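This follows on from our talk about sequence and fold. Go ahead and set the record down below:
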Amino acid sequence: MKSLARTDHLTVKRYQVPSRFQISYTDGTVKKNLTQLNAINDPNANLFEDMFANLETELPPGMRIQNGDFIDEPQKLPEDPLCVITMLYEDEQGNITPVATDSDREWVKKQENLRGR
């Protein structure tokens, strides 16, 4: 999974950061649907709850046998699903850069400093 972390964003379904997340900049600008990098690893932020709920509704039904009959049964994601999270940085021109390493995170900080954010 980690070997695809830098390129899988090109082929997978994208989910927007929930609107309850926002960033307030020093110039007074507030942008919704954005979050700081530390929210990715903060379990209390519940950053991915909406996405997992959405994914669960898209799963095809499972089957179980009851009294000799096949019964459709909704599938559920496990409590702690195996996943690799790659943060994506999108600039004002729409260019997307995966942030997968410490040097990538440093690059993001430099970009934000250049923009005064």
About this structure: The first strand starts at residue 22 and ends at 24. The chain has a mean pLDDT of 87. The CA atoms of residues 27 and 113 lie 13 Å apart.
